[in-house]
Specification:
alpha+beta; Nuclear Transport Factor 2, Chain: A; five-stranded mixed β-sheet; 5 strands; about 40% helix
């Protein structure tokens, strides 16, 4: 059973994650190198492409990813980007810890596997 304060925290993170994915984040896909750039250079096209990835099952919603990441790297989401690295779609998340440090967490967007955590 989840405590009500935990439910509130999850709700807040879900809201923030959704807000970031839909409005704040540099929508949505950025590639490592220009040769593999995904079509669409404006934010609206990139945002639609990201939503299509989720709709077609090629990426999980950010809220699902955040639930998994919270277990390994607790904190508040500062930034989220959806990128393609070596043909794999990944979320690159900046997480602010309660101590004021932040970590960059790379997560496989399709299966929630945490690929890398870099503390900054």
């Amino acid at each position: 059973m989840v405590k009500s304060s935990s439910k509130a925290a999850l709700s807040r993170r879900f809201f923030l994650g959704t807000l970031l994915l839909c409005a704040i984040v540099q929508p949505a896909i950025a590639d490592e190198d220009e040769a593999n750039e995904i079509p669409g250079h404006d934010e609206a096209s990139e945002h639609e492409y990201a939503l299509d990835l989720v709709k077609h099952g090629d990426a999980l919603p950010l809220a699902d990813i955040l639930l998994e990441v919270e277990k390994a790297v607790p904190g508040d989401l500062l930034e989220a980007r959806l990128k393609r690295r070596r043909g794999v779609v990944v979320y690159v998340l900046s997480i602010l810890s309660k101590t004021g440090t932040y970590s960059v967490v790379t997560v496989n967007a399709k299966d929630k596997t945490i690929i890398n955590v870099q503390e900054k």
